[in-house]
From TrEMBL:
It comes from Capra hircus (Goat). It is found in: Nucleus, Nucleolus. It holds the Pfam family Brix. The gene is IMP4. One of its GO terms (biological process) is ribosomal small subunit biogenesis. Residues 82-263 form the Brix domain. GO terms for molecular function: rRNA primary transcript binding; snoRNA binding. Component of the 60-80S U3 small nucleolar ribonucleoprotein (U3 snoRNP). Required for the early cleavages during pre-18S ribosomal RNA processing. Part of the small subunit (SSU) processome, first precursor of the small eukaryotic ribosomal subunit. During the assembly of the SSU processome in the nucleolus, many ribosome biogenesis factors, an RNA chaperone and ribosomal proteins associate with the nascent pre-rRNA and work in concert to generate RNA folding, modifications, rearrangements and cleavage as well as targeted degradation of pre-ribosomal RNA by the RNA exosome. SMART domains: Brix. GO terms for cellular component: Mpp10 complex; nucleoplasm; small-subunit processome. This is IMP U3 small nucleolar ribonucleoprotein 4.
Length: 290
């Protein structure tokens, strides 16, 4: 128990130090560019330009693979199985409750908790105390699931997604039975830096599968809409494989990532936010580098 506050302080200290180092590096880069392009050094940097220029001489290329707080968040991913808790917004409709039950079948070993009158802070504290690694909250509008929040514990990040085109298990014809095996993951189209961040947030909700698992979950990104599909397969002979959809199926659209857990909404820094009303918003994609 004593180790937990110490870990938290160490993590917050590293995060603050990284921010300071990044600001210092940006100042050095401005001086370096001015010298390389033979331009005037920016006014706000002139007093410390000589010191910055001196420190540039000791910098070398490389530094890839250096750990930062982002690595720290998922340090034990793949080593220990994730422990996922699923809950809903307050006063859920029967359809949202059903969707939460179906999500519980998607994540091996997941637990579902009735929301009741619990506040977000109490939920997060209970999850941290019980070793939960990820808290998922689903929201609805008039019985239709419209939002999914994935909060990684104990430090964050928290990703906010819009849910669309939700088709529940009982609405899919010729439905297969849900397997409880740990699934293989197919993750496609997440080639940008933000895309890799989002694929990590989704991927680490699942434990490492066994080789003989016949269950497949797909997250396929196209134009920043992430399609979720869930199948089981069986080999009919040595050449052919038969796929059966298990469901549910839906699309996710990321609109925000916060550095922090769900109850820190008012204070946590925003790592990324979608700005739909800028002139170029409809032309740009963020999750892939194409």
């Amino acid at each position: 128990v004593l180790g937990r506050p110490l870990r938290l302080r160490r993590y917050l200290y590293r995060k603050a130090r990284e921010e300071a180092e990044r600001t210092a590096q940006e100042r050095k880069d401005k001086v370096r560019r001015a010298l390389e392009e033979n331009r005037l050094i920016p006014t706000e940097l002139r007093k410390e330009a000589l010191a910055l220029q001196g420190s540039l001489e000791f910098e070398d290329a490389g530094g890839e693979g250096v750990t930062n707080h982002v690595d720290d968040e998922y340090r034990w991913a793949g080593v220990e199985d994730p422990k996922v808790m699923i809950t809903t917004s307050r006063d859920p409709s029967s359809r949202l409750k059903m969707f939460a039950k179906e999500l519980k079948l998607v994540f091996p070993g997941a637990q579902r908790m009735n929301r009741g009158r619990h506040e977000v802070g109490a939920l997060v504290r209970a999850c941290k105390a019980n070793g939960v690694t990820d808290l998922l909250v689903v929201h609805e509008h008039r019985g239709t699931p419209v939002g999914l929040i994935v909060s990684h514990l104990p430090f964050g990040p928290t990703a906010y997604f819009t849910l669309c085109n939700v088709v529940m298990r009982h609405d899919i014809p010729d439905l297969g039975t849900a397997s409880e095996a740990k699934p293989h993951l197919i993750i496609h189209g997440f080639s940008s830096r933000l895309g890799k961040r989002v694929s990590d947030i989704l991927r680490y909700l699942f434990p490492v599968p066994k080789d003989d698992s016949h269950r497949v979950i797909t997250f396929a990104n196209q134009d920043d809409y992430i399609s979720f599909r869930h199948h089981v397969y069986k080999k009919t002979n040595h050449r052919n494989v038969e796929l059966t959809e298990v469901g549910p199926r839906f699309e996710l659209k990321l609109y925000m990532i916060r550095l922090g857990t769900l109850e820190q909404e008012a204070t946590a820094d925003v790592e990324w936010r979608w700005h739909p009303y800028t002139n170029t918003a409809h032309k740009r994609v963020f999750l892939s580098a194409e």
